[in-house]
Known about the structure:
Elements: H1 21-39, H2 47-58, H3 63-74, E1 83-90, E2 96-103, H4 106-119, E3 123-124, E4 134-143, H5 149-159, E5 163-166, E6 170-175, H6 180-191, E7 196-203, E8 207-208, H7 212-227, E9 231-236, E10 238-239, H8 242-251
Parallel strand pairs: 8-10
Antiparallel strand pairs: 1-2, 1-3, 2-9, 4-6, 4-7, 5-6
Amino acid sequence: MAGHSKFKNIMHRKGAQDAKRAKIYTKIGREITISVKTSGPDAGSNPRLRAAIINARASNMPNDRIKRAMDAGLGSADSDNYVEVRYEGYGPGGVAIIVDTLTDNKNRTAGDVRAAFSKYDGNLGETNSVNFMFDRVGEILYPLTVGSFDAVFEAAVEAGADDCAEDEAHFIITTSPNALGAVRDALHAKLGDAEKTGMIWRPLTPAPVTDEDIAKTLMKLIDVLEDNDDVQEVTTNLEMDEQLLAKLGASS
Length: 252
């Protein structure tokens, strides 16, 4: 494991101050619905559903909304037939972008994603056109208040995680895809519920962006994609220094 070296977070994450609660609930609700529809309503035997419920509770999603999403997956409520579609392409500055969606209308979603890439100087590619630049891994996030780094690191090692690191807000624990559920459950026994758990795309090679105009356009593209209700996750291999990031934040 990487030990005490900090994991450089080069994925764009919107700050909580920009997030809209209703959109968060919509995205989590769709994940719960498709998890139930795919593998059943028992969170004990459905790791994807368990992860979605953990994320729902961490986001303070009301229990009745969680239940409605599960009912929709069982077909006991009026529900749309969601399908998973992944889009890949390049944004300004040659930054690779993966857009994971859950949609009940593939034509609508494809049109929205294509329009966003086109408007903000991106190029939408074919499936698998950029995902070779990423690893698919499990990720578990705990707030820094859960304990010391040494304690969390030791718990992660014992649970079978591949890596444990920290950034300014979280302990970041990564696992192989097949081990995510077991590691999550082992950590839960020692540390309680995680703040977030799930599969992510981890960039292998960063794409540095230093030009302010390119960075502004790229951020607009990412924001438009993330604001789309059909979009579950936007991942990039963007790398930007803190000075430019702060400058963009001050001008927004």
